[in-house]
What does this fold into?
Amino acid sequence: MSAAVGRPAAGRATPVGVATAEPAGRRFRLYVWQIPVRVTHWVTVLSILVLSLTGIYIASPFVVPDGGSFMTSVRFIHVVTAFVFIGSGLVRAYWMFAGNRFARWTAFVPTTRKRWGELLGQTRWYLFLRPHAPKVLGHNALAAATYTGIFLILLLQAMTGLALMGVDGTQPWSALFGWIPDLIGIQTMRLVHHLLMWALAAFVIHHVYSALLVDHVERNGLLGSIFTGYKFVTKGEAMEARDGGEDVAEDLE
It folds into this structure.
């Protein structure tokens, strides 16, 4: 599988008088985030935004226009967006098995002692206790562990939302998820659904900050990569990275 297109980043010119030697800092395009990863990322972002705004209104209507149909419209938008959100999640779940090395489930779960060490090293770097972060091309271990937790939160959010749709007996949601309110009660389920929304809002703030920080430090086009799919790395970075290796470095030719 080809991972990259061998073209140096803009602005990285070969030194004058050097015909064959390759500058140590020369960067090449590396195809990291495939189309399904990028599309589901932005569909999820927009869905969370719409679901949060409509959910806040449903929980506490701050404007009640005459006619009584506004709440119905808001609920309709909330439900339709919820199914778009669930569909995006299902596509991303499938791509954890069908995608490249940066998208697969193995990129998220620390299955070796080395990966656990990377998780600790990345944490120390964020806490300014380590001068350099572990080398990685895709998700670093701490981000991957965080995303795994977020996936679970999104799953729980979807389940409690579908259970709320089935509270009045609407099928098939009542049959599939009626056990949730039976287990914890309707009001507790509503509270969990609401609190998870704020947990996601807190994650979004942290996620944006971390992306800005890492993009500034690594200068490999991280922010742009979620739009284009490409990062810009040196051969040395490709060789040293935990999810890199000789095959990736060779594809940078």
